[in-house]
Design brief:
The protein is built from eight helices and 51 strands. By secondary structure, it is mainly beta. The chain has one domain: Maltoporin, Chain A (Beta Barrel). The strands form nine sheets. The chain has a 29-stranded mixed β-sheet that branches. A hairpin with a 2-residue loop joins β6 and β7. The two termini are 54 Å apart.
Length: 982
């Protein structure tokens, strides 16, 4: 660890020596970068530090005045973000919107990906790689998912994401900027070993007077063909009175909708086969055969609404009071038609008279498929392959409210006292409901390398799929969530400025306390049969066929223009979407045709409840220092420590198995009848989090930074769930218990800890010209992973699997960035500019448990990288602003990364392959107040591709191949936008 820190320092020194002979251009004293103004009552401790640095720099040669805005548009935003980075007392990257409603992207998540070291997911959930999201989702910093989220410097969260904020829930139109802290100082709230993202909203005192801004637009996807609106409005003003001082008020509202369509085709897991049918016609001793293919279309709808309000009152020059309120509401729904392979992988054989085709490594390429799965008496089922027609509807609504009130008081010329009270409430509800039809398709031909390198599927005879008599109502499955979180927080800070000190600038102390409650309900996925070959009703086949049972509730879905016509797949009959979206009435309809003991809506049990409380107390002290002459060059920095105590309590239950009805000793069966018993969790822990930042100003424009700190991330509430489910495995004749097992959360988990080191070299050669490089290292302890241990309940030993703090990890890498407008070019060409950054990340310490695809048993896994970590990522953007025109063409790319060590559907490690997306925008200024423009996303029609593997078979046998799992394509999106500012 120490050697790595020295290595990082050596790299930075070498870079500094390389750049030292290059004298940056002295900045024009008449040019002032754009900013958001200064807010006297800022609640953001880090923003106060930035302001302090900027104020101190104002008295020095070649200083920058952040309070004035002399330009607008892309250039102004770049200048403002660059000035924040240059004058900050720590390493920070920012994106600002000097113009109202003008963040570079239409979602906060997609804006964040433009920052070096930040990458985003494109899936609804990393554990479910079958469902890409319509917009970017989870945020990772330097490959780590443990990211703290703040709003105006205060901790915030979404109920459906546990610790942090779902950034896609928050309207981008409400933001004035976003800041990313990768090695935070002691005055920043703890919580993210990856880093901290702070979202900034506007305050009325940011502007010198009245501001009015609005925007409106309409967007459409080229596949979905659905037009959706967006609109926002901001009003801000400030007034002076002779007796009561100065007042300021702001109101900002936004509304936006989005519709998109995603087409996907997938291969089922490849399994090692040594049977004669699979080997026929080959010289291989073993081959690898997929279990079939799936294809699906997902129609996604999103509605996002937000309102932000702020009030500031400065009754005297020394006192300011403020109130900030923000409320966001996010509703997401999607309706999916999925043709999903329904047989066992190992029952797939070549159709009669055919052999499978393999490549030189024995990997399946194409063939006519048959299945040996038992079909019962269903007519026409022989020599067919089972497919489900899944009609799935998921709807989720998340509402988050954040209200804060505070003050800032200049006690005298050297002492500032500030504080605030905050209330955060977040509610999230989800309903996920699927209805399944089923058929056995004859003459299925699968090619894994069809058109454009993607699989293709055909059925012979083709007309078989058009007859509803060839399908039956198969099953239904539901899942519900209701999550509620609330946090109350209070803080108090004191700042003292030193007078006439050669080294000491100022010192800050602060205390903060929180009280948070989490009341979460999450049911299992409740699958139940409607009719099956083993669950029959009184019909000739024993099944409820679509032509005779509820015929008005199913229809043929054609998969028209699938993958824009590039991939061939058959049509299928599906349950109607109107039935899937009517969850409250579906059971009363389906129960009229289902077999005895069939599907019933899920019932909440104590196992589905997770109620926890958490209190924290924190205190920090941080000393800022600096000297312009003592070392021959200006140097400044800060050193501090944050002390945190966390107390947790959780009340839950354990449940014994039900053993009645078996041929066991009566005393044993009587002892275990599914009864519950109390399981409580209570504990506390303390953490000391030191931090150190040092900056050397090698020239007027070149500065070198060093940073070291200790960070923490508390475990997710889902990992600490106070529920223990005990079970018993019986021998085949049910006369003896062969194993006592259990699964549980762990309320005793401790936070993950990271010791982190950064060094950065930054060259600011013009107001919008920046070249920088950063090397970083993180040593991670208390990594959380599941493990099985022996525990005793009721005098019986049980093998219980629960999460523990058992792992360690390491992350290291480097970032490089470059921004510049080419002002040296003549005439209109000086409007061109470029932004570029690249990040390299390497990790060690990933934990993996594997599942044998033959037996389903958990077997010894193999080393994997950390989840979410791409070794390589970059952003490249071309900019143009001249006269009345401004435009941007931005490409973001990240290399392959691990989505999950055990995917929810395949139980294999799942990877997202290399992915890049090109976005663009162009705006024309009609006059000084009005702009019209066009924004465009996914111009290159990028394909999201997933991979699966390696596959463990036990006894040290591992197939290290990464097989293709899925290909997904979604809309190109276009939005016409009108903006006005007055």
């Amino acid at each position: 660890m120490v050697s790595s820190a020295r290595l990082a320092a050596a790299i930075a020194i070498g870079l500094a020596l390389m750049y030292a002979p290059v004298r940056g251009h002295a900045q024009d004293a008449g040019t002032t970068p754009a900013g958001n103004g200064t807010t006297a009552a800022s609640t953001n401790a880090s923003a106060n530090a930035i302001k302090k640095a900027a104020d101190g720099a104002a008295d020095k040669k070649n200083a920058k005045n952040l309070a004035q805005v002399t330009v607008t548009g892309i250039r102004a935003s770049l200048e403002s973000a660059q000035a924040l980075k240059e004058n900050a007392t720590q390493i920070v990257d920012s994106i600002t919107a000097v113009d109202i409603n003008a963040l570079p992207d239409r979602s906060v998540t997609e804006t964040l990906q433009r920052i070096s070291g930040v990458t985003i997911d494109r899936f609804v959930s990393p554990s479910d790689a079958d469902h890409p999201a319509g917009e970017g989702s989870g945020v990772m910093i330097r490959g780590l998912t443990q990211v703290a989220s703040q709003l105006n410097g205060r901790d915030t969260f979404s109920a459906n994401s546990g610790r942090g904020l779902s950034f896609e829930d928050i309207p981008a139109e409400l933001m004035s900027g976003v800041d990313v802290y990768k090695n935070p100082s002691a005055d920043i709230i703890e919580g993210g070993i990856g880093g901290t993202v702070n979202l900034r909203t506007r305050m009325p005192f940011d502007a010198p007077g009245q501001q009015i801004g609005f925007s409106t637009g309409v967007n459409e996807g080229d596949i979905s063909k659905k037009s959706k609106p967006s609109a926002s409005f901001l009003y801000s003003n400030r007034w002076k009175s002779e007796s009561l001082g100065e007042f300021g008020a702001l109101l900002d509202v936004s509304y936006s909708e989005l519709a998109s369509q995603t087409d996907g085709i997938q291969l089922e897991p490849f399994t090692r086969r040594t049977d004669a049918a699979a080997l026929a016609g080959t010289n291989f001793k073993q081959v690898y055969v997929p279990g079939g293919a799936d294809w699906r279309t997902l129609d996604f709808q999103r509605r996002r609404m937000g309102i932000a309000g702020a009030f500031q009152w400065r009754p005297t020059d020394n006192l300011e009071l403020y109130s900030q309120f923000i409320r966001s509401s996010y509703r997401m729904s999607w309706l999916e038609h999925g043709a999903i392979f329904a047989d066992s992988n190992f029952d797939i054989t070549p159709a009669s008279g055919t052999d499978f085709n393999y490549n030189g490594q024995g990997i399946f390429q194409s063939g006519w498929l048959n299945s040996d799965t038992w079909r019962g008496n269903y007519p026409g089922s022989q020599n067919g392959v089972g497919f489900n027609g899944d009609t799935r509807y998921q709807v989720q609504t998340t509402t988050t409210t954040d209200w804060s009130n505070g003050f800032k008081y200049n006690v005298n010329d050297h002492v500032i006292l500030s504080g605030d009270l905050q209330l955060v409430k977040s509610n999230s509800n989800e309903t996920d409901f699927t209805i399944f039809s089923e058929t056995y398709l004859p003459g299925v031909f699968l090619s894994t390398n069809g058109s454009h390198g993607m699989p293709s599927v055909t059925v012979s005879p083709a007309g078989y799929v058009n007859n509803p008599a060839n399908y039956f109502w198969s099953a239904a499955m539901d899942h519900v969530e209701d999550e509620r979180g609330m946090e109350r927080a209070a803080r108090l800070d004191l700042e003292y400025d030193f007078e006439d000190s050669k080294w000491l600038q100022y010192v800050k102390f602060g205390i903060r306390a929180t009280d948070r409650d989490e009341d979460n309900v999450s049911s299992p996925y409740n699958w139940g049969a409607i009719t099956q070959p083993w669950a029959t009703i009184d019909t000739p086949s024993g099944l409820a066929t679509l032509n005779s049972s509820l015929p008005n509730y199913s229809s043929l879905y054609s998969f028209a223009n699938f993958f824009r016509g590039q991939v061939n797949v058959p049509s299928l009959y599906f349950p109607n979407g109107t039935l899937a979206t009517n969850y409250s009435q579906a059971y009363s309809i389906l129960k009229t045709i289902e077999a005895s003991g069939g599907w019933k809506p899920v019932q909440i049990t104590p196992a589905d409840l997770n109620n926890q409380g958490e209190k924290t107390k924190a205190a920090y002290g941080i000393l800022y220092f600096g000297n312009d002459d003592a070392l021959g060059i200006p140097v400044d920095g800060n050193i501090g420590v944050r002390l945190v105590r966390t107390s947790e309590n959780a009340a839950g239950q354990g449940q014994y198995p039900t053993l009645a009805g078996n041929d066991l000793p009566p005393a044993v069966m009587a002892m275990y009848n599914g009864q519950y018993f109390p399981v409580d969790g209570r504990g506390s822990y303390q953490n000391a989090l030191p931090s150190f930042n040092l900056r050397f100003k090698l020239t007027d424009d070149l500065q070198w930074r060093l940073a070291a700190s200790k960070a923490m991330t508390r475990p997710d509430f889902s990992q600490m769930q106070p529920f223990l489910l005990l079970g018993a495995t019986l021998n085949p004749d049910k006369t003896a218990i062969t194993q006592w097992t259990g699964t549980a959360g762990n309320p005793d988990l401790k936070p993950m800890i990271a010791k982190q080191y950064d060094t950065a070299l930054e060259w600011y050669f013009s107001p919008t010209g920046l070249l920088y490089t950063t090397a970083f290292f993180k040593d991670i302890g208390n990594y959380i992973a599941e493990e099985t241990e022996t525990e005793v309940y009721n005098n019986q030993q049980w093998s219980v699997t629960r999460p523990y703090n058992i792992g360690t990890g390491m992350v290291r890498g480097a970032e490089f960035g470059y921004n510049q407008f080419f002002d040296f070019l003549p005439g209109w060409m000086k409007g061109f500019g470029v932004q570029a950054n690249y990040t390299y990340v390497h990790s060690q310490g990933g934990v993996n448990t594997a599942t044998n695809p033959y037996s389903g048993a958990v077997v010894t896994g193999f080393p994997l990288p950390m989840v979410g970590l791409s070794p390589h990522s970059f952003n490249l953007a071309g900019m143009y602003q001249y006269g009345n025109w401004q435009a941007r063409l931005a490409y973001s790319w990240r290399s392959r990364y691990l989505l999950s060590t055990s995917d929810a559907n395949t139980h294999l490690p799942m990877w997202s392959d290399n992915y890049g997306q090109l976005d663009a925008s162009v705006f024309y200024k009609v006059n000084a107040n009005i702009q019209v423009g066009l924004t465009m996303n996914n111009l290159t029609n990028a394909t999201v591709k997933t991979l699966m593997g390696p596959t463990s078979y036990g006894n040290g046998v591992v197939d290290y191949n990464l097989y293709p799992r899925g290909w997904f394509v979604t809309d190109r999106r276009y939005e016409l936008v009108l903006r006005a500012n007055f």
